[in-house]
C-alpha cells in the first residue's frame, strides 16, 4: 500500500469512505456531520519521508490526532490515493479547483486550511468520484495528477 508510494515531496488527494454517518469532532473546527459517501482530502507532503511517510500516517490512522484529517480518519476508511510528485506547491490550487467540480461539495469550512486562504481542503460526494473524472477536471485546468488509484482491499 503506502510502501508503493515514493518518498519524494508532492501533493495528494486522499479518498475516504464513510459508511456510518454520525458526527465527529474536528479539533477546534467543531463538529462535522458525516454522511455516508466519500470525502476527498487535498494534502501535501514536504517533510522527510515525503508522500510515503505522510500518506502512511493517514492510512494507518493515529491514536493522538494532530491534523484535521486525523480526526476524520478515525471515522472513515481509505479508498484511494492519487498524487503528483514534485516540490511545486499544488495543494491550494487543487483545493480551489475541486470546489468547482460538479460532483463535489465542500464538507467543512477551514478543514485542512487553517494556515491558508482556501475555503476548505475537504470535499464530499455521495458516490465515489472516479480517478478519470478528477484527472480530466484537473488537466482541463492545466494541473495533472500522477500515479495512484484504488487501494488494495
Describe the protein's architecture and organization.
With 153 residues, the chain is an alpha+beta fold. It has one domain (2-141). Helices cover 23% and strands 30% of the residues. It has helices at 50-60, 68-73, 91-98, 131-140; strands at residues 10-18, 22-26, 30-34, 37-45, 77-85, 105-106, 122-125, 148-150. The strands form 2 sheets. It has a 6-stranded antiparallel β-sheet with strand order 6-7-4-1-5-8. A hairpin with a 3-residue loop joins strand 2 and strand 3 (30-34). The relative contact order is 0.23.
Task: Give the secondary structure arrangement, pairings included.
Blueprint: E1 10-18, E2 22-26, E3 30-34, E4 37-45, H1 50-60, H2 68-73, E5 77-85, H3 91-98, E6 105-106, E7 122-125, H4 131-140, E8 148-150
Antiparallel strand pairs: 1-4, 1-5, 2-3, 4-7, 5-8, 6-7
Amino acid at each position: 500500500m503506502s510502501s508503493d508510494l515514493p518518498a519524494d515531496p508532492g501533493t495528494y488527494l486522499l479518498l475516504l469512505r464513510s459508511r456510518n454517518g454520525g458526527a465527529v469532532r474536528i479539533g477546534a473546527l467543531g463538529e462535522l456531520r458525516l454522511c455516508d459517501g466519500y470525502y476527498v482530502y487535498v494534502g501535501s507532503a514536504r517533510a522527510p519521508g515525503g508522500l510515503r511517510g505522510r500518506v502512511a500516517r493517514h492510512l494507518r490512522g493515529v491514536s493522538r490526532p494532530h491534523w484535521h484529517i486525523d480526526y476524520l480518519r478515525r471515522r472513515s476508511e481509505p479508498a484511494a490515493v492519487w498524487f503528483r510528485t514534485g516540490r511545486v506547491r499544488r495543494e491550494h490550487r487543487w483545493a480551489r479547483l475541486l470546489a468547482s467540480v460538479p460532483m463535489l461539495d465542500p464538507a467543512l469550512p477551514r478543514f485542512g486550511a487553517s494556515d491558508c486562504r482556501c475555503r476548505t481542503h475537504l470535499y464530499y460526494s455521495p458516490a465515489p468520484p472516479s480517478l478519470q473524472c478528477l484527472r480530466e477536471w484537473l488537466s482541463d485546468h492545466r494541473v495533472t495528477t500522477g500515479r495512484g488509484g484504488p487501494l488494495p482491499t
